[in-house]
Structure formats: C-alpha cells, structure tokens
Specification:
The chain has one domain (about 5-254): TIM Barrel (Alpha-Beta Barrel), CATH 3.20.20. The chain has ten helices and eight strands. The protein has helices at about 15-30, 45-55, 80-85, 95-100, 105-120, 130-135, 140-155, 185-205, 225-230, 245-254, and strands at about 5-10, 35-40, 60-65, 90-95, 125-130, 170, 215, 235-240. Strands 1-2-3-4-5-6-7-8 form an eight-stranded parallel barrel, surrounded by six helices. α1 packs parallel to α10 and α7 runs parallel beside α8. Bound molecules: phosphoenolpyruvate. Phosphoenolpyruvate (PEP) binds near residues 217, 218, 219 and 237.
C-alpha cells in the first residue's frame, strides 16, 4: 500500500513563507523511500511557488485545498481543477471538515467536487469524519457510510475499480480532533479505520485494499509513529504540525 504524508497549510503562509517551507521539505526529502508520497495542500497563491521548490523531487506533490465543480464560469471566488493544475497542483482536498462545517458544504457538493476533480485530471484526498455528538450517539459508521456513499454513488463508470488506484485517497479525520490537541486514541482510530476500509470495500470492491486511508487530527511528531503502526492507517494528514518544515519532516521520519 502506498504511504502518504499530507500537509494541510490551511489559510497560513505568504508566498515567500511557503517557498521557504517547501524548499526545506524538498531538501529533507531528496531520498524518498519507494512507495511513499508527501504532499502539501497549499493556499492557492502559493501553489506555484511550492511546485517550483518541489520540481524534480520524486514523490513530492502539491495540491489545492478546494475546487469548484465547473470548468469555468460566473462563480466568484472559486477555482477550477484546470486552474489548480495550471498553477502546478496535481492533488486537491475535498470534504475537509472546515469546508463542511464552516463553509456549509454538504455531502452532495463534496461528491460533485470529488468526481469533477478526478474527471479533470486531479488526484483527490477525500476527507470524512464524524463530529463529537455523532460519535457519542453511536453514529460513527452511519456518518462515514453517508459521506462515502454520496461520493461513490456519483462516480461515473470510468472512475470505478482500478481507475481509482493512485488517484483517490481517503482522510479519516474525527472533527473533534482537528486543531484541538485531542488525538483519537488507538481503539478509536482502529475502529474508525476498519469502518472506513470495510465501507470502501462495499463501494469500490477489491480496489479498496489499494486506496490509502490517512488519519488526521492533532498529529504531532510525538504521536506519529504510534498512529502509523495501527491497522489500516496508511498515512497521516497534518494541519498545525505541518506548518514548520522540521516538525513535518519529523512526522514523516517517525
Ligand atoms: C487538518 O487540518 O486536516 C488537521 C488534521 O489539522 P490538525 O493537525 O491541526 O488537527
């Protein structure tokens, strides 16, 4: 299984700051192990700078944090997959909890974005995850199922099965663990990742065993290796602790 370490820089960093962090990451990741990818989801303004700093380093990629499901048009403030690719991105995040819960994106919109991005040449890291109230009321499985079903039921024939390998990864992020310092415990992570894997098998068949499932939520250098050792954890999605290149490099090296 491909291992993925993903940085989500959210709404942080000027172009110069992003270029410096990307250069530090590139310097630290010149000898990327086979089967491992590292990607940075940068602010739109910095995608070109990050792509330039990563140029020629195998296994290092840049992505956008959002895109709109249309080729072009009167969608003020939005950005298309083609624009992201033009800037140097090869990946995009969809369904991040901050998009779902602050910007009000529903499952149907996340599904449209995911499918349109895949159809238009971007690889997608699709984020799913439950709120604390949903977990406490025993709805974990139902929430993950609803979020994944929305996407997979919108997938056209050409994006089923093997066509998704290397193009789709899933980020499981319990909403209550994002940016809160509360990392999910091993029992919770194992339970959630097992649920995500079995739901992926339901929706994508055997290909599900080759779709990486990343854990995200208050990952730090001191908990990364324990998280990576858990069943069905194929990588990490890191927000706050990815802003400093050295801290993200420690997480990748852990
Ligand atoms: C995220 O933004 O996806 C995230 C997991 O953030 P943090 O690592 O800061 O919790």
């Amino acid at each position: 299984m491909q291992k993925i370490f993903a940085a989500n820089w959210k709404m942080y960093k000027t172009r110069a700051q992003a270029a410096q962090s990307a250069a530090d990451l590139a310097a630290g990741l010149r000898a990327m192990p086979e089967g491992q990818s590292v990607m940075v989801f940068a602010p739109f303004t910095a995608i070109g700078d990050v792509a330039a700093a990563f140029n020629g380093v195998p296994g290092l990629f840049v992505g956008g944090q959002n895109c709109y499901p249309a080729a072009e048009g009167a969608f003020t403030g939005e950005i298309s997959p083609a624009m992201l690719r033009d800037a140097g991105a090869s990946w995009v995040l969809t369904g991040h909890s901050e998009r779902r819960h602050i910007m009000g994106e529903d499952d149907a919109m996340v599904a449209r974005k995911t499918v349109f991005a895949l159809e238009n040449g971007l690889n997608v890291l699709l984020c799913i995850g439950e709120t604390l109230a949903e977990r406490e009321s025993g709805k974990l499985h139902a929430v993950l199922e609803r979020q994944l079903e929305a996407v997979f039921s919108a997938m056209p024939e050409g994006l089923r099965g093997e066509a998704l390998e290397g193009r789709l990864a899933v980020g499981y992020e319990p909403v209550w663990a994002i940016g809160t310092g509360k990392v999910a415990g091993p029992v919770e992570v194992i339970e959630s990742h097992a649920a995500a894997r079995s739901l992926l098998q339901k929706f994508a068949g055997e290909t599900a065993n080759r779709l990486p499932v990343l854990y995200g939520g208050s990952v730090k250098p001191n908990n990364a290796s324990a998280l990576m050792a858990l069943d069905n954890v194929d990588g990490l999605l890191v927000g706050g602790a990815s802003l400093e290149a050295q801290s993200f490099l420690q997480i990748i090296g852990a």
